[in-house]
Design a protein that fits this description.
The structure holds 3 protein chains of 3 kinds. Chain A is an all-alpha fold. Chain A contains 11 helices and no strands. In chain A, α1 packs across α6, α2 crosses α6 and α3 crosses α6. The chains are: A mainly alpha, B mainly alpha, C alpha/beta.
Chain lengths: 263, 270, 327
C-alpha cells in the first residue's frame, strides 16, 4: 500500500500546483453536466411515456458522472509507457514488488488523485445548488462508498490489463481507442444504461464496464434498491478478479518474452 | 503576389503534414476508424433516447439527425483545418517555440495554421455525412439549389466558427497553458449542444450560444429554413438564410483577437 | 548610422513563485507571490557592419532578452533600437527577412521531415526564388558537407549534424545578420572546430554580421575580437578580451615543469597558486617583477625542465567579475 500512497501524494501535489488547470477542469465538468441535464429535462417535458428512471435519478447519474469522469481508464500512464520505451522497466523488474503490483498501484494512484480533486468541489456545489439529490438512504450512502472503491479497483485493473499490451506493441494506440469507445457506451458515460433498448440490456449487464459508473450511481439514487446491491457488487468483484488474473497472466508471459529477448 | 505566396505556403504545409501522417498508415487508419466509431457510438445513445421518448420538444429523430450531421461535419472540418491552433498551447508556447514563428517573415496565424492538418477527423466528417444523408432520405426534403447551398454554406460557416474557437484557445495560451481545457466547453461542448435544437435549452444558455458565440447560426437557424419550421423565439427568415455569414465574421473577429494576443506575448515574453 | 544600435533598453518581467509542499500547493491555489525582474536595465551598444561580436554573461543576465529585442520578438519597456535603420519590433516582417538565427538547444527544422524538405519549406516561407534557392543551397551543402544528410529525417541526426543543418537553414535567405545562441553546445571537439571554421569564413568572406551568445569562452577567444559582458541587465564591459583581462587583473602566470617535486619552490615576487605533482602554477605581478627576471631566478634555483608564461584563464576573470557585481 505504501507505493500507492507515495504515488497518490505526488500526483495530488502535482495537480494542486496547477491552480488554473484545476479550476478550468472543474468549470468544464459543470458546463457538460448542465448541457446534459437540460437535454434530459427537455426529453422529459416532451413525453409522458413511462421511463426506466425518473428525472431526479437521471440528475444524480449525470452529476456523479461528471464528478467521477476521471476515474475511467482512458489514458495510459505516461511513466509506465516511458519506462517500457526507454527500457528502464528492467530496473523495475529487479524491485521486490512485482511488476503487476507496481503498475496496478501506479494506475490506481494516478486515477484517484484527479478524481478526488474534482469530485469533492463538484459534489459540494451540485448537491445544494444543481439538483443533485442526497443518497436515497444511509444504507445507499454506505453501499455507494463501497461501490466507488470497487469502481476504482476495477478501473486500475482494466488500465493495468491494457498496460500489459504494451509489452507486445509499443504504442497500443488502437486498442486503447477501441476500449475507450466500448467503455463510454457500456459504463454509462454517454447516457444512463437503463435507457438503452431492452434487448441490449442483457449485454449491458454482462459486461464489466457498468461497475465503473452505472452501479455506484444507481445505488446512490436508490435505482438499485438495497436488496439488489449485493449481487451487483458481487458481479463487479468477480469481473475485477478475472481482469486482475488476466493481467497477471499476460505480464508473466510478457516479462518472459522481455527476458528472452534481453529486454 | 503576397496572397499567392501565402496560398502556396499553406498548400506546402498541407502537403508536408499529409505526407507525415501517411508515414504511419496503420496508426492513421486506426485513428480514422476510431473517429468514425466514436461518433457512431454517440449516435446510438441519441437514437436510444428517441426510442424511449419519441420526440424532443416536437423535433423528430430525422430532424435532429439533420442538426447532428451539420454540426459534426462542420466541427470535423475545423478540427482538421484549425488543428494547429488547437495544439498551439502545449506544442508551441509551452516549448518556447513561438519565437521561431516570430522570426519568420510571415503572419503568425498562417504559420500556426500550418503546424498540422490532421486527417483522422475526416472519420467524424464521414459519420456526420452518413447521418445527414439518412436524415435527408427520411425527411424527404425537397432540396432546391438554394436549400442545398444554404446547408453547404452553413457547414462552412460553422467550420469557421469552430476554427475561431480554436483560435481563441490559442490566444488564451499566451496567458496560461494550464487552463486551456476551459475552451473545451465551447468546442466539444458546443458541438454537443448543437446536436439538439437550441430551443430546448435555458434562456441564458441559448442567448450565450446565439449572441456571444454564434452557434445557433451553425445549424439551428439554417435547419429552420431548410425544414420550414418556425422558431419559438421568432427569429426572422432573413437571419436564418444569412446565418453562415456570422460564423465567418466570428472567425475574422477572433483573428483580430489573435493579433492582440501576439502583441501581449511580444511585450511580456511569457 | 551604426548597423545595429541599442540605447538604454529596459525590460522588466513579472515572475511568480511557488511554495513547496502540499500546504504550499494548497495556499498557492488562492494566493500566489510574484516579483519583478529587470532583465535589461539600460543596455546600450553599437555594432558596425561585418563585426563578429561575443555576448557573454551568466544565466538570466539578460542575454537572450537582448537577442529577442534585436530579433523583433520582444518589445522593450523603454529605450530605442535600430537594426539596419529599422526598429525591429515595429516592422517585424521586413526586419526578420534580413536576419537569421540559430538557437543551439532548439532546432528550427521540422522534427519529422527529411532535412531537404525543411529547407524547401523555408524557401516558401521566405519567398526565395527557386534559382536563387538552388544556388545558395548548393553552396551551403558544399561548405557544411550536408550532402549525405539531406534525405535524413531531422530526428535521426546527431547533434553536430543537426547544428550544421540548422546553420544552413538560418542562412538560406542570405541574411546580413546572424544571431547565434550557444551554437557549439553539446558538440564534440571536431564538430566545434567545424562550426567555428564555418562562422569565421562566413564573417570574413560574406561580411555577415554575427552576434554570438555563448557560455563557451573558447568560442569567443577563437572568433570574436570584441566582447560585450552583461550581468543583472547591465553591460559591464564593451571591448576586447585583453581589455577585459587587464581591467580585472594585471597578473600573469608561470607554469613550471620540474625534475623533482619542487616542495621548496618559492619566490619573493610570486605566489604558488596550484601544485599538480611536478607541475607548479605561480602568479606574479608584471609591474613588480619582469617575466625574464623571475624566470632566470626560478631556473637558477630549481631543476626546471619546461616553462610557460600565460594569462589567467578567461573563465577565472569572468568568474571574478560576476562575483564583484553580485547583488
Amino acid at each position: 500500500m505504501r507505493p500507492v500512497f507515495a504515488i497518490f501524494s505526488a500526483r495530488f501535489r502535482g495537480l494542486l500546483q496547477y491552480r488554473a488547470a484545476a479550476l478550468a477542469g472543474l468549470a468544464t465538468q459543470f458546463f457538460w453536466g448542465l448541457i446534459r441535464l437540460m437535454i434530459f429535462d427537455a426529453f422529459y417535458r416532451s413525453s409522458t411515456a413511462p421511463q426506466p428512471m425518473d428525472y431526479a435519478q437521471v440528475a444524480v447519474y449525470i452529476w456523479l458522472g461528471q464528478a467521477f469522469f476521471a476515474l475511467l481508464p482512458q489514458w495510459m500512464d505516461g511513466e509506465i509507457q516511458e519506462s517500457l520505451r526507454s527500457g528502464t522497466v528492467a530496473y523495475e523488474m529487479l524491485r521486490p514488488v512485482g511488476l503487476y503490483e507496481l503498475w496496478f498501484a501506479r494506475n490506481l494512484a494516478s486515477r484517484t488523485a484527479p478524481v478526488i480533486l474534482r469530485a469533492v468541489p463538484l459534489l459540494a456545489i451540485a448537491i445544494p445548488f444543481l439538483g443533485l439529490g442526497l443518497p436515497a438512504s444511509w444504507t445507499a450512502a454506505g453501499a455507494f462508498c463501497v461501490a466507488m472503491v470497487a469502481a476504482a479497483l476495477l478501473s486500475a485493473a482494466i488500465a493495468t490489463l491494457m498496460t500489459t499490451t504494451l509489452l507486445w506493441t509499443v504504442s497500443g494506440e488502437g486498442i486503447w481507442q477501441l476500449l475507450a469507445l466500448t467503455m463510454w457506451l457500456f459504463s454509462g458515460t454517454l447516457i444512463p444504461l437503463p435507457f438503452f433498448p431492452e434487448w441490449l440490456q442483457p449485454l449491458v449487464n454482462a459486461l464489466p464496464f457498468r461497475g465503473l459508473m452505472d452501479v455506484p450511481f444507481r445505488i446512490w439514487s436508490g435505482h438499485i434498491p438495497p436488496s439488489a446491491v449485493l449481487p451487483n457488487l458481487a458481479s463487479v468483484a468477480c469481473w475485477t478478479a478475472v481482469i486482475i488474473g488476466m493481467g497477471r497472466l499476460l505480464i508473466a508471459r510478457g516479462t518472459r518474452k522481455l527476458v528472452v529477448q534481453g529486454g | 503576389m503576397k496572397i499567392k505566396g501565402s496560398l502556396r505556403l499553406l498548400l506546402h504545409y498541407v502537403a508536408v503534414s499529409v505526407r507525415g501522417q501517411m508515414q504511419y498508415k496503420t496508426s492513421f487508419a486506426i485513428g480514422l476508424v476510431a473517429q468514425f466509431l466514436l461518433m457512431g457510438v454517440e449516435w446510438i445513445a441519441i437514437w436510444s433516447l428517441f426510442a424511449r421518448f419519441g420526440n424532443l420538444a416536437g423535433w423528430t429523430l430525422p430532424e435532429v439527425a439533420l442538426l447532428y450531421g451539420m454540426a459534426n461535419m462542420a466541427f470535423a472540418i475545423s478540427e482538421t483545418a484549425a488543428r494547429g491552433f488547437d495544439i498551439f498551447g502545449y506544442r508551441v508556447v509551452k516549448q518556447g517555440d513561438f519565437d521561431w514563428l516570430l522570426l519568420r517573415p510571415r503572419s503568425t496565424a498562417l504559420q500556426v495554421a500550418g503546424l498540422e492538418f490532421r486527417l483522422r477527423y475526416l472519420g467524424r466528417f464521414a459519420q456526420g455525412a452518413v447521418v445527414l444523408a439518412w436524415a435527408t432520405a427520411k425527411l424527404g426534403i425537397g432540396w432546391t439549389l438554394a436549400k442545398a447551398g444554404l446547408a453547404a454554406a452553413a457547414i462552412l460557416g460553422g467550420a469557421c466558427m469552430f476554427s475561431g474557437l480554436f483560435v481563441l484557445q490559442a490566444v488564451l495560451s499566451f496567458w496560461t497553458t494550464e487552463s486551456l481545457e476551459i475552451l473545451n466547453t465551447v468546442t466539444y461542448g458546443g458541438v454537443e449542444t448543437a446536436q439538439y435544437p437550441l430551443a430546448i435549452y435555458r434562456d441564458w444558455f441559448r442567448k450565450f450560444f446565439t449572441y456571444v458565440i454564434p452557434l445557433a447560426c451553425l445549424n439551428y437557424f439554417p435547419a429552420l429554413a431548410i425544414l420550414g419550421r418556425t422558431d419559438p423565439s421568432g427569429v426572422p427568415a432573413v437571419i436564418q438564410w444569412m446565418s453562415p455569414v456570422f460564423g465567418m465574421l466570428f472567425l475574422l473577429v477572433t483573428l483580430r483577437i489573435w493579433d492582440f494576443g501576439v502583441r501581449h506575448y511580444r511585450s511580456t515574453g511569457s | 548610422m551604426p548597423f545595429i544600435e541599442a540605447e538604454h533598453l529596459v525590460k522588466t518581467f513579472h515572475v511568480s513563485e511557488r511554495e513547496p509542499g502540499i500546504g504550499g500547493a494548497l495556499r498557492g491555489l488562492f494566493h500566489r507571490r510574484g516579483r519583478e525582474v529587470r532583465a535589461l536595465d539600460g543596455v546600450s551598444f553599437a555594432i558596425r557592419e561585418g563585426e563578429m561580436l561575443g555576448y557573454i554573461g551568466p544565466n538570466g543576465a539578460g542575454k537572450s532578452t537582448t537577442v529577442k529585442v534585436l530579433g523583433g520578438i520582444l518589445v522593450p519597456d523603454s529605450g530605442t533600437c535600430t537594426v539596419m535603420g529599422r526598429v525591429p519590433w515595429k516592422d517585424r516582417v521586413a526586419h526578420v527577412r534580413t536576419i537569421g538565427a540559430v538557437f543551439g538547444q532548439r532546432t528550427q527544422l521540422w522534427w519529422g521531415l527529411p532535412v531537404v524538405e525543411s529547407f524547401d519549406l523555408l524557401r516558401d516561407i521566405y519567398g526565395v526564388a527557386a534559382a536563387e534557392h538552388a544556388r545558395v543551397l548548393a553552396e551551403l551543402v558544399e561548405v557544411l558537407e550536408l550532402g549525405p544528410l539531406l534525405s535524413t529525417p531531422v530526428r535521426q541526426l546527431s547533434l553536430g549534424q543537426r547544428m550544421r543543418c540548422d546553420l544552413a537553414a538560418s542562412l538560406l535567405h542570405s541574411p546580413r545578420i546572424l544571431f547565434l545562441d550557444e551554437p557549439t553546445i553539446g558538440l564534440d571537439a571536431p564538430a566545434k572546430l567545424a562550426v567555428r571554421d564555418f562562422l569565421r569564413k562566413l564573417n570574413r568572406e560574406k561580411g555577415v554580421t554575427v552576434l554570438l551568445t555563448t557560455h563557451d569562452l573558447d568560442d569567443i577567444e577563437a572568433l570574436c575580437e570584441r566582447v560585450l559582458l552583461i550581468n543583472h541587465g547591465r553591460i559591464l564591459h564593451d571591448g576586447t578580451l585583453a581589455d577585459l583581462r587587464r581591467r580585472v587583473t594585471g597578473e600573469k602566470r608561470v607554469v613550471l615543469d620540474l625534475a623533482d617535486d619542487g616542495r621548496d619552490v618559492s619566490d619573493p615576487d610570486a605566489t604558488v597558486i596550484r601544485r599538480e605533482g611536478k607541475r607548479i602554477h605561480l602568479s606574479f605581478d608584471p609591474t613588480r617583477v619582469t617575466a625574464s627576471a623571475l624566470i632566470s631566478r626560478l631556473t637558477a634555483n630549481h631543476p626546471v625542465r619546461d616553462l610557460t608564461v600565460e594569462n589567467p584563464p578567461i573563465e577565472e576573470i569572468i568568474a571574478r567579475i560576476y562575483k564583484d557585481t553580485a547583488a
